[in-house]
């Protein structure tokens, strides 16, 4: 019963015009109760991160999803999928800031990262970043024998109004009064009948949940989430939501009907001040409909604006569908009849008739399900103030609608139209969340279940890590965070980056270093550089840039290892690295078992000698190649082994006086450092054996630090980067095997390894000359970042089981600008994601990380005036606590 206050407000609303025609009566728990007695339920599901995975994975998922159309359910049951592209609220940015370790954060890195975070913040505020969410709604019509129809209740209601308010008020606007009274009527049942109907609907909901694919992580909305979704869709308000009462059953009509939808003669409606337009699917694609057809709408850059894809699915009765198909075929055939006899059909009629006959044949022969499909895209523009801004927003709305129509026609081969003004006004209220209905709208497309289910959007970009150190955006404008140390999402801590020269590999590496040092702080960074790409960032962070040249040799002793001065025995990995170095210098193949056994025996004797000379209170003693040669020469070998021992001695003795190979480790390496860059270009001109051995020793020096523990007995994480893998494989082939071995076991030790090169084949080799170690390295990699590279993507897509067309479109759609890399796509384990860099990067970060001639001269000029750049650390003590640069 209406209270006097509500009665007056309702009377005022009726005098103002027609009420909003909602079909929702209220909520019973988290179940939607409709006025006609049917029940509905809303779910959230997580779309799969498979945009760049091969289409076979998507096809299998779509095949599983098809079962939701086949289980038993009442007639006119409708299932609606809603894929919303809304403005991002900065969730990834908040996760990054909340998980940042301010106590150990590097101050200089914090300054540079703060400028970049400000860029992301401005992008969020300006509406350039979107977030995709997917929901599914189901409405089940349940009838009770005592239910009365709407018409049987309408006449007594009008008679009652006439008695209370007089016949004159009814006659002033009879149509509006009748429609308003019709919208207020609802099916009323007894308590027991209502409970029985609700139980029937609940069983349908349970069957729907059981048939939904598990990998999409279906979850039913609770009461609050359901109300907020309904309120947001109906009122177009996102700031605050009313508080519902504690009662189980709540009438929602006063919340949902209090909205304002204005329509004009133009092709749009204005919903609470927001211009909205509808684009609907008119015809299905010609030919075969692939399972990944919707990824061309959900992942394209052309639709990087707020919109919502609404897909309605309804199963048809088979006999009714057969009759309808036969009627349509007969109608086309009957159009040939004229007064002068039969005429030939037009080409479009012939095509339509052939499709209908083919569909009828499938229904009769394969026992295939027939379904009706409605696909609409709700396109939004922004609210405006003033006539000029309103015209501007309408122009934006027109452009966005054209982009949607163009995407549907070009990407998936179907036809779409923008609805006219009359249909906009009639259909749009039914497009709101919860207003799904099986009544025909003229948009229905009849097809088999195999084809219809492919139009359900089930894919999106990777959501990212919960504690990200870096922020990226996808080509279609979504933001996500990346944490390379997140073992829950990234099983293998190996990263492969492929991009051509000038596409931003060095900038990406410098950005990762900056972000990790600003976010975690206590991470050791070790870089194997080629041609001074990392020299600017190393100096900026006060790191140690180690160059190798013959004038000032700084040797690394392969025999040395942490703890040798305390008398700690060498590990098996340490002994294997020394053995590998001996075989490199002697150019001995690993398959030579006798020589390897001789070298291993001598190594064991040398370490026994060093353990006897080291210990507490004693000066540190490092065995070298000279000690190995002395033991090798004086050791009593059997006659069968003497010849090979003498040969090994002759091969190694030529290096006895070499300062690179027969010297203790330089004292500079004993100084603790959190950032070391080893420049390899200086030793690329040395003799082949010496070059390979020195390069191997550098990598061994880095590998020895893996697994070190801090004062809290926790392992120190390490970020290891190798630039220009093509040059490293060419000049230092032994390094790749050692790195591959360490990357496999690095997951337990807190190691993240990142490799950079210009092409995918630089890792795997060519078909004629495959690189077995590189192939294993790529297969074990947990993340792949792919940019515009040398050559094509065919082999990469085949080996990594990626979708070639989607990969090419994502990478090549990005525009490369100065100092900014082009698009990258990365994949981790079963997840595949695409990321791109901002179109403009804050100048402070480019200034500190890039190495162009212009920025290099600017750094040199400022260093002469203000001193080294690394003095920023002492001049900005407050920056670690700051999250944004002013």
Helix and strand topology:
Layout: H1 4-16, E1 24-28, E2 31-34, E3 39-45, H2 55-65, E4 78-87, H3 91-98, H4 107-125, E5 130-140, H5 150-165, H6 167-172, H7 174-184, H8 191-211, E6 219-220, H9 223-235, E7 249-251, H10 253-256, E8 261-263, E9 269-271, E10 274-283, H11 295-298, E11 307-315, H12 318-334, E12 337-338, E13 341-342, H13 347-366, E14 370-380, H14 387-411, E15 415-418, H15 421-427, E16 445-448, H16 449-452, E17 470-473, E18 479-482, E19 494-498, H17 505-519, E20 524-529, H18 535-540, E21 544-547, H19 572-586, H20 593-613, H21 625-634, H22 639-653, E22 675-679, H23 688-703, E23 718-722, H24 725-731, H25 733-745, E24 751-757, H26 761-764, H27 772-780, E25 783-786, H28 794-800, H29 804-812, E26 824-828, E27 831-835, H30 843-849, H31 853-866, H32 872-875
Parallel strand pairs: 19-24, 19-25, 20-22, 20-23, 21-22, 23-24
Antiparallel strand pairs: 1-2, 1-7, 2-3, 3-5, 3-6, 4-5, 4-11, 8-9, 9-10, 10-14, 10-15, 11-14, 12-13, 14-16, 17-18, 26-27
Helix pairs in contact: 4-17, 5-7, 12-13, 19-20, 19-23, 20-21, 20-22, 21-22, 23-25, 24-25, 25-27
């Amino acid at each position: 019963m209406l209270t006097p206050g509500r009665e007056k407000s309702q009377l005022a609303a009726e005098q103002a015009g027609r009420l909003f025609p909602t079909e929702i009566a209220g909520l019973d728990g988290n179940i939607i109760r409709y006025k006609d007695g049917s029940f509905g339920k809303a779910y959230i599901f997580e779309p799969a991160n498979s945009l760049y995975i091969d289409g076979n994975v998507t096809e299998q998922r779509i095949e599983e999803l098809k079962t939701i159309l086949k289980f038993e359910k009442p007639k006119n049951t409708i299932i609606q999928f809603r894929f919303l592209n809304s403005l991002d609220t900065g969730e990834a940015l908040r996760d990054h800031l909340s998980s940042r370790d301010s106590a150990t954060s590097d101050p200089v890195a914090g300054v540079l990262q703060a400028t970049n975070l400000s860029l992301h913040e401005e992008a969020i505020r300006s509406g350039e970043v979107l977030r995709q969410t997917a929901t599914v709604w189901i409405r089940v019509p349940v009838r009770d024998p005592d239910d009365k129809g709407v018409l049987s209740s309408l006449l007594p209601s009008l008679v009652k109004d006439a008695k209370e308010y007089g016949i004159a008020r009814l006659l002033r606007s009879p149509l509006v009064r009748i429609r308003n009274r019709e919208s207020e009527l609802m099916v009323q049942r007894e308590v027991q009948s209502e409970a029985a109907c609700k139980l029937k609907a609940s069983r349908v909901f349970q069957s729907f949940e059981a048939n939904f694919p598990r990998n999409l992580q279906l979850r039913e909305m609770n009461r609050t989430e359901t109300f907020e979704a309904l309120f947001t869709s109906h009122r177009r308000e996102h700031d605050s939501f009313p508080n519902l009462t504690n009662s189980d059953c709540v009438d929602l009509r006063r919340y949902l009907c209090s909205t304002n939808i204005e329509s004009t003669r133009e092709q749009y409606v204005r919903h609470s001040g927001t211009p909205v337009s509808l684009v609907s699917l008119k015809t299905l694609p010609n030919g075969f409909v692939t399972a990944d057809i919707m990824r061309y709408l959900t992942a394209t850059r052309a639709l990087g604006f707020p919109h919502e894809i609404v897909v309605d699915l309804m199963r048809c009765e088979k006999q009714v569908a057969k009759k309808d198909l036969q009627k349509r075929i007969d109608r086309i055939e009957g159009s040939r009849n004229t007064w002068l006899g039969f005429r030939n059909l037009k080409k479009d009629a012939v095509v339509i008739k052939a499709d209908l006959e083919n569909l009828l044949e499938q229904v009769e022969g394969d026992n295939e399900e027939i379904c009706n499909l409605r696909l609409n895209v709700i396109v939004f523009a922004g609210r405006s103030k003033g006539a000029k801004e309103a015209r501007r927003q309408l122009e934006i709305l027109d452009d966005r609608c054209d982009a949607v129509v163009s995407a549907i026609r070009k990407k998936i081969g179907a036809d779409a139209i923008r609805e006219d003004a009359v249909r906009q006004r009639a259909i749009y209220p039914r497009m709101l969340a919860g207003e799904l209905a099986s009544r025909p709208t003229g948009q229905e497309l009849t097809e088999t279940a195999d084809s219809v289910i492919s139009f359900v959007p089930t894919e999106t970009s990777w959501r990212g890590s919960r504690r990200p150190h870096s922020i990226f955006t996808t080509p279609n404008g979504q933001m996500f965070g990346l944490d390379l140390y997140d073992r829950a999402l990234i099983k293998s801590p190996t990263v492969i980056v492929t991009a051509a020269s000038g596409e931003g590999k060095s900038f990406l590496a410098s950005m990762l270093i900056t972000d990790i040092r600003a976010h975690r702080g206590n991470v050791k960074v070790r870089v194997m550089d080629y041609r001074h790409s990392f020299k600017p960032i190393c100096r900026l962070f006060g790191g140690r840039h180690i160059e190798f040249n013959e004038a000032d040799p700084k040797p690394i002793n392969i025999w040395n290892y942490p703890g040798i001065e305390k008398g700690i025995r060498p590990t098996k990995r340490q002994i294997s690295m020394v053995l590998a170095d001996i075989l490199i210098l002697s150019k001995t193949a690993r398959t030579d078992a006798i020589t390897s056994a001789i070298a291993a025996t001598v190594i064991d004797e040398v370490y026994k000698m060093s353990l006897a000379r080291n210990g507490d209170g004693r000066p540190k003693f490092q065995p070298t190649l000279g000690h190995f040669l002395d033991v090798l020469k004086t050791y009593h070998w059997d006659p069968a082994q003497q010849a090979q021992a003498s040969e090994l001695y002759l091969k190694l003795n030529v290096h006895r006086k070499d300062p690179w190979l027969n010297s203790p480790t330089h004292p500079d390496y004993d100084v603790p450092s959190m950032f070391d860059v080893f420049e390899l270009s200086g030793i690329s001109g040395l003799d082949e054996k010496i070059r390979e051995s020195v390069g191997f020793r550098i990598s061994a020096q880095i590998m020895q630090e893996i697994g070190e523990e801090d004062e809290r007995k926790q392992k120190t994480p390490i970020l290891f980067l190798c630039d220009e893998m093509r040059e490293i494989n060419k000049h230092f082939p032994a390094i790749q095997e050692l790195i591959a071995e360490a990357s496999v076991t690095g997951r337990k030790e807190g190691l993240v390894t990142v490799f950079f090169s210009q092409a995918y084949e630089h890792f795997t080799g060519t078909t004629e000359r495959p690189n077995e170690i590189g192939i294993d390295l790529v297969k074990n990699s947990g993340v792949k970042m792919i940019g515009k590279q040398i050559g094509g993507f065919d082999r990469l897509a085949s080996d990594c089981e990626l979708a070639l067309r989607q990969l090419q479109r994502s990478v090549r759609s990005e525009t490369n600008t100065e100092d900014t890399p082009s698009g990258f796509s990365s994949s981790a384990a079963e997840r595949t994601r695409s990321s791109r860099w901002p179109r403009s990067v804050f100048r402070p970060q480019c200034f500190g990380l890039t190495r162009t001639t212009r920025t290099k001269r600017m750094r040199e000029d400022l260093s002469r005036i203000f001193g080294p750049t690394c003095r920023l650390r002492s001049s900005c003590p407050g920056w670690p606590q700051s999250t944004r640069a002013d």
